[in-house]
Amino acid sequence: MAKRPLILVTNDDGITAPGIRTLISVMNTIGDVVVVAPDSPQSGMGHAITVDATLYLEKVNIDGKQPEYSCSGTPADCVKLAVREILDRTPDICVSGINHGSNSSINVIYSGTMSAALEAGIEGIPAIGFSLLDYNWNANFEHCKDFVETITRQVIEHGLPDGVVLNVNLPNLNKKDIKGIKVCRQARANWVEEFDKRTNPMGREYYWLAGKFVNKDNGEDTDEWALANGYVSIVPVQFDLTAHHAIQKLNTWTLN
Amino acid sequence: MAKRPLILVTNDDGITAPGIRTLISVMNTIGDVVVVAPDSPQSGMGHAITVDATLYLEKVNIDGKQPEYSCSGTPADCVKLAVREILDRTPDICVSGINHGSNSSINVIYSGTMSAALEAGIEGIPAIGFSLLDYNWNANFEHCKDFVETITRQVIEHGLPDGVVLNVNLPNLNKKDIKGIKVCRQARANWVEEFDKRTNPMGREYYWLAGKFVNKDNGEDTDEWALANGYVSIVPVQFDLTAHHAIQKLNTWTLN
User: pLDDT at residue A44 above 80?
Assistant: First the structure.
C-alpha cells in the first residue's frame, strides 16, 4: 500500500484506558489513526448494539495527536458510527483493545473487544482484537508493543480471508520470557459460575456473578496452551456461526 | 427418556412477552417447565453478561402453571442463574424465545435470544432459540406452535452434536402457507446502517441507529432463502468461532 493506511482504533474499556492509549501509540507508527471508543467501560457487553436508546458522540482531545471521538454506546456501536458517520472512507484496518484481561477461548463470546473487531469484519474491514492477560487498570503494556506492531503490519500486508478476523491474546510476562507468536484454535473451555448471594440494606437478596475458568481441552494447538507456554496466541475467528458438519445429521431427523 | 424432561425456558423480550408465553404453553405439553427470563426487554444485547453490577432474581407468578423467575440481568445471566442457583438438576433442554423479530443470518450475532441458547450449549445443555419474523408485541404466534413442538421433540429424542445449538426462525405467514422445515446455513448478509442524527431540546446532537438489512448471498441453502420461500429455517450454530480454514494461511506469515 503506497499511502499511509487509515486505521480505526476502538476498545471496550473506554477511551481513556491505558490499553487503548498503548494501541494508539503503536498505530501512529504505522498509519493515520482515528479513534472512536466508548466513553465508559463496556466489558462483558458481548456483541451488544444500542437499538432502543439514543447515542451520543463527542469529539474529544486527549493527547492532541489524532482525531478522537467518545461514544455513549457499545464497541459495536462505535464501529458502526465510525464507518457511517465519521470516516470519509472505509478504514484499511480496525484494531480493538488492548483489552485489560484475557479474551482467549470461550471469552471471545462475551468480549466487547472482539465484538468491535467482528463488527468491522462484517463491514469487510480487516480487523484485530488485542487483549493482555492482566485485568488491572495499571497493567504494563510495554511488552505488547512489538507484537501488536508485527501482527498489524502482517494483516495490512496480507489482508485477511473473507469473513475472518483475528483474536490476539498476549501473556502477562516480561518480554524476554515470551517465546513468540502462535496461530491457534479456540480452546474448549468454559466458566463455572459461583454466584455470590448477598442481602442489601433493605433486606432484598441480590447476586454477584463470580466463577472460575475451566479449560477442558488438552490440545497443544489451542490458545490456552500457547498462552500457558509463553506464546502470544492468534485465533482466526469467523462470524459465520453455521456448524456445517451438523447439517447432514439434522437432515436425517423427522422434521416434515 | 422415560420421565418427563426438565425444560428451561428463557427469552430476551422479557418474561411477560407474548412470544415466551406461547413457548411456555407448548413446552408444558412436552415436559416440566421452569422459566427464568429477564424482567424487561433485552433486545440487541448480544452475548452480554453482567460482570460489574448486581443481579436481582424474583420468584413470580404469572399464570400459576410453572415455577417462574424474573431476573434483572441479560438472557445469558438468566441461563447461568438457572443452572447454578435455581434448578436442582441440569435441564434436559433449554429453549429461548419465541423472539419478536428475526434472528436469521447475521442477526444471530446481535441476538439475546440466541445468546441464551449458546450459553446453555456452553453448559452442555441441548438448546434451541426460536424467533418469529414479526417485530410486533402483538404478533400472532399460533402458527408457530406445531413447528416449535416438532423441533423440540426431535432435539429431545436425538440430542445435538457437541458444541452445537439450533437457531430456528419462523416466517410470518398463515400456517397453510408454510411449506415445511428446512435445515440451512447462515446467509451472508449484513445491516447497512443509516444513523438518524437529531438535536435534543438542550441543543446536543444524538443519533438513533437505523438501517436496512442487505442479503448478499444468492445460495438456496441459506436461512434467508428458506424464509423468503415459505419455510421454517433451522441453522445449527456453534460457539467454537475458530476459522479453521484460515490457520494454514496464517502460518505462512512472517510472525516470528
Answer: no
Are B110 and A206 an interchain contact pair (Cβ–Cβ within 8 Å)? Answer: no
Question: How many angstroms separate the CA of residue B196 from the nearest CA in chain A?
Answer: 10
What is the structure's pLDDT at A1? Answer: 52
Please indicate, yes or no, if residue B205 is contained in any of the structural domains: no
Q: How many CB contacts within 8 angstroms connect chain A with chain B?
A: 225
CA distance A160 to chain B (A): 9
* Within-domain flag for A172: yes
A110/B contact by beta carbon, under 8 A:
yes
Q: Which residues pair with A177 in a beta bridge?
A: none
Residue B1 has pLDDT above 70, yes or no: no
How large is the ipTM? 0.91
Within a domain: residue A255? no
Average pLDDT, chain A: 94
Single pTM value for the model? 0.93
Asked if the structure places residue B192 within a domain, the reply is: no
Highest mean pLDDT among A22-36, B33-47, B49-63: A22-36
* Residue A198 and residue A209 in contact, taking contact as beta carbons nearer than 8 Å: no
Provide the pLDDT for residue B235: 98
CATH of the domain at B156: 3.40.1210.10
- Spatial neighbors of A41 by CB under 8 A, at least 6 apart, are A12, A13, A14, A17, B52
Contact B186 A240 (CB under 8 A): yes
* Block residue for cell numbers 457487553: A45
Mean pLDDT of B182-205: 91
- Write down the mean pLDDT value for chain B: 94
d(Cα A44, Cα A46) in Å, to the nearest integer? 6
The answer to whether the Cβ–Cβ distance between B236 and A243 falls below 8 Å is yes
Contact A78/A56 with Cβ under 8 angstroms? Answer: no
Average pLDDT over residues B85-108: 96
pLDDT confidence of residue B47: 73
Which residue from B minimizes the CA distance to A162?
B246
Q: Does A138 touch chain B (CB under 8 A)?
A: no
Residue closest to A209 by CA, chosen among A195, A188, A225, A224: A195
* Separation of alpha carbons B237 and B104, rounded Å: 11
- Domains in chain B: how many in total? 1
**Structural domain of residue A177, as residue ranges?**
6-186+219-250
For residue A230, which residues of chain B lie inside 8 Å, CB to CB?
none
Q: What are phi and psi of B243, to 5 degrees?
A: -85, 80
The phi-psi region of residue A205 (left if phi > 0; otherwise alpha if psi is between -120 and 50; otherwise beta) is beta
- Cis ω for the linkage preceding B98 (within 30 of 0): yes
Q: Which of A57, A181, A188 sits opposite B207 (nearest CB)?
A: A57
CB A94 within 8 A of CB A120: yes
Q: What is the pLDDT of residue A2?
A: 59
Cα–Cα distance between B190 and A179 in angstroms, integer?
39
